[in-house]
Write a sequence for this structure.
């Protein structure tokens, strides 16, 4: 679904004109609000992402992707080694004037750039062009009008997307005073999210986890004793 | 699962249109606005019928038709017309010049008033020196012998077996009478003076009503040879447009004044009957030209068509307001044409245009080949009051099954974004005969009325619908509509309008 499809489907449920810029603007605000609600519910597997950037000779700080809220790991795919994360205090202690250059083996969280994107510093400062791959936990940005025709697939799992429709409709109905209708849509949203949550919990590749037997906990224990079986 | 909704029924619209009230103050049986629609006896709203040329070729090179009519004369039904400076026998739609040697001065405002004076048609226009006569058959028109008593008479009547002519060139307040049974003998003192310009003549009950702007005067036969008629002023208001005086069943005489349309029933007062046209309609008329307005009674529907000048600078009559005697209500206007004269021909309204044609109205579903642009708009009723918000769900409209025509339904409201839906007025059916094609033809429905649902949107205490169709040869008949809504309750609005 696109943002617009979500908004217009929700507006239809609310009973508002789907072509009105006023109502679309309201629906967009609610879409962003509902999105944050859903994102904060749990660690969604579809919010783990990966990306790359290329180092520049002599440049220490690099901006990550716009939706990278929490960097998780870095690796230098050109030189084929991992990059360990360290603190900024450790960087400053190791290289107070940030002058040491070479093959970077450390990454440091370095605040945000002027655009608000997460920024990292590499140590030593790169002296060549390498490709750095990284993993991160994403944040869905606030959508604006120019995003209306964008697909939501890059931000929300298709399984979750119907919840956005119900969530927007619910909030809009509350605004219009239709509490009864809002509750009905809220229930639909929760139903969808419950299903998505179960699916999220099971998204662990092909590994199967087996619950331990209840008698494996508590007082029962086994330990070999010295002696013979006679 | 049924929809939990309340219903607001709008229509049948027997109260017609009301231009004097805001949409919020009109009841469910009234309409806020309309053009080119008519209201039937059941309160249904229909697209008006169109018009077609009565005469195939333009008369007098496209001159203005300043008068015409259908009369029984010389043992035959004849349709005559005056177009520009010529008099025509246009019976059956073929115009034959019967002007002879009469003088007719062309001009849009040189309209003619005519009567059948016994076996003779007599007409005058207040411009040409003599009234003209026509005996029908193959005769040419002639001039009326008025014994040289007056020139340029404006108004004409035939009453008490006498011909009456008023507002002549020298004395605008004078009404002359011919001798009984002799339209060519005029006594030197056989006239009445009223002190005010005579603006129209019309026999009414047992009197001859003589209109002036300042009142209606009556002449009543006394039976006395010396003073054969008694003269009385009955009211303080009369018409300003003699061609607009129409007497309708119930013995009501209706006529145009500068502020509206009035009715006189023969008593000592007149009553304004066009309050519903005030404000949004009447205030847009060019009142300076109302003296040239005219009216036509349509007996089959008991309607009076008032041809009026709509627009502050409009000089010709381009708008027809309809008064329904049966419903005592107004509808219209009919527009998109201009007319200079009107009369019944073969019991249907006809009207003369400015291009040499008599147009036969009420004939088909187009205006001489052009689309009729028709719409009407309902009242804006708050079913639960101004303070209670409603969510508008859908409208169920009842309409006549008249064909595969689409009607646009536009929903509006102060807090609602305008939205347009479409409903189809039935379907074009086919008979199950040799022309019927399986998997293609649809059987003709025997259902006379159908319903269709159209979406409504938005939250507001009130909403209104506008039905329209602007397509050639398409029509509609809407019986009523039910607006379904869900009561929300009392909610505070942050601002006026759409939020």
């Amino acid at each position: 679904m696109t943002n617009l499809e979500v908004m217009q489907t929700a507006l239809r449920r609310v009973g508002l004109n789907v072509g009105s810029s006023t109502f679309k603007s309201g629906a967009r605000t609610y879409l962003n609000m509902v999105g944050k609600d859903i994102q904060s519910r749990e660690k969604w597997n579809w919010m783990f992402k990966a990306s790359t950037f290329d180092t520049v000779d002599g440049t220490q700080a690099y901006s990550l992707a716009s939706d990278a809220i929490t960097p998780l790991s870095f690796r230098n795919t050109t030189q084929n080694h991992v990059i360990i994360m360290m603190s900024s205090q450790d960087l400053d202690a190791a290289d107070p004037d940030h002058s040491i250059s070479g093959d970077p083996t450390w990454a440091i969280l370095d605040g945000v750039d002027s655009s608000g994107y997460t920024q990292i510093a590499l140590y030593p400062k790169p002296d060549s062009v390498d490709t750095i791959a990284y993993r991160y936990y994403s944040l869905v940005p606030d959508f604006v009008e120019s995003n209306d025709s964008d697909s939501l697939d890059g931000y929300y799992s298709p399984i979750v997307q119907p919840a956005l429709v119900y969530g927007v409709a619910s909030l809009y109905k509350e605004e219009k005073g239709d509490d009864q209708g809002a509750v009905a849509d809220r229930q639909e949203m929760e139903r969808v999210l419950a299903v998505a949550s179960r699916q999220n919990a099971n998204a662990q590749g092909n590994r199967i986890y087996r619950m331990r037997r209840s008698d494996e906990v508590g007082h029962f224990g086994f330990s070999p004793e010295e002696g013979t079986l006679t | 699962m049924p929809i939990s909704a309340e219903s607001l029924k709008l229509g049948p619209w027997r109260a017609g249109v009301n231009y004097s009230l805001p949409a919020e103050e009109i009841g469910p049986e009234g309409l806020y606005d309309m053009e080119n629609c008519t209201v039937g006896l059941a309160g249904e709203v229909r697209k008006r019928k169109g018009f077609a040329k009565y005469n195939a070729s333009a008369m007098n090179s496209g001159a203005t038709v300043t008068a015409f009519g259908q009369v029984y004369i010389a043992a035959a039904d004849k349709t005559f017309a005056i177009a520009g400076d010529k008099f025509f026998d246009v019976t059956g739609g073929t115009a034959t010049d019967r002007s002879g040697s009469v003088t007719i001065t062309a001009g849009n405002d040189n309209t003619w008033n005519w009567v059948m004076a016994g076996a003779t048609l007599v007409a005058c226009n207040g411009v040409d020196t003599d009234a003209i006569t026509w005996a029908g058959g193959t005769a040419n028109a002639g001039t009326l012998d008025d014994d040289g008593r007056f020139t340029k008479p404006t108004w004409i009547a035939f009453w008490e077996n006498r011909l009456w002519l008023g507002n002549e060139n020298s004395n605008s307040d004078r009404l002359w009478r011919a001798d009984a049974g002799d339209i060519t003998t005029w006594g030197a003192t056989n006239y009445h003076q009223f002190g005010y310009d005579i603006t129209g003549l019309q026999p009414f009950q047992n009197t001859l009503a003589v209109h002036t702007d300042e009142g209606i005067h009556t002449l009543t036969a006394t039976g006395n040879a010396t003073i054969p008629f008694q003269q009385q002023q009955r009211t303080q208001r009369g018409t300003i447009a003699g061609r607009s005086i129409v007497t309708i069943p119930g013995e009501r005489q209706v006529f145009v004044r500068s502020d509206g349309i009035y009715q006189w029933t023969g008593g000592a007062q007149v009553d304004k009957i066009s309050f519903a046209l005030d404000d949004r309609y009447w205030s847009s008329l060019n009142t300076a030209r109302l003296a040239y307005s005219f009216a036509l009674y349509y007996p089959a529907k008991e309607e009076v068509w008032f041809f009026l000048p709509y627009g502050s600078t409009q000089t010709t009559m381009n708008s027809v307001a309809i008064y329904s005697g049966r419903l005592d209500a107004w509808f219209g206007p009919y527009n998109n044409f201009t007319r200079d004269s009107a009369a019944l021909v073969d019991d249907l309204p006809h009207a003369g245009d400015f291009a040499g044609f008599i147009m036969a109205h009420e004939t088909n579903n187009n205006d001489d080949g052009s689309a009729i642009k028709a719409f009407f708009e309902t009242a804006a009723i708050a079913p639960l009051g101004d303070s209670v918000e409603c969510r508008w769900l859908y409208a169920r409209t009842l309409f006549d099954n008249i064909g595969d025509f689409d009607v646009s339904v536009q929903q509006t409201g102060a807090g609602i974004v305008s939205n347009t839906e479409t409903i189809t007025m039935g379907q074009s059916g086919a008979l199950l005969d040799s022309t019927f094609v399986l998997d293609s033809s649809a059987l003709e429905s025997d259902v006379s009325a159908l319903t269709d649902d159209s979406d409504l949107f938005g939250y507001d205490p009130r909403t209104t619908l506008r039905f329209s169709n602007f397509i050639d040869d398409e029509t509609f008949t809407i019986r009523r509509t039910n607006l379904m809504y869900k009561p929300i309750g009392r909610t505070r609005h942050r601002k006026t309008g759409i939020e």
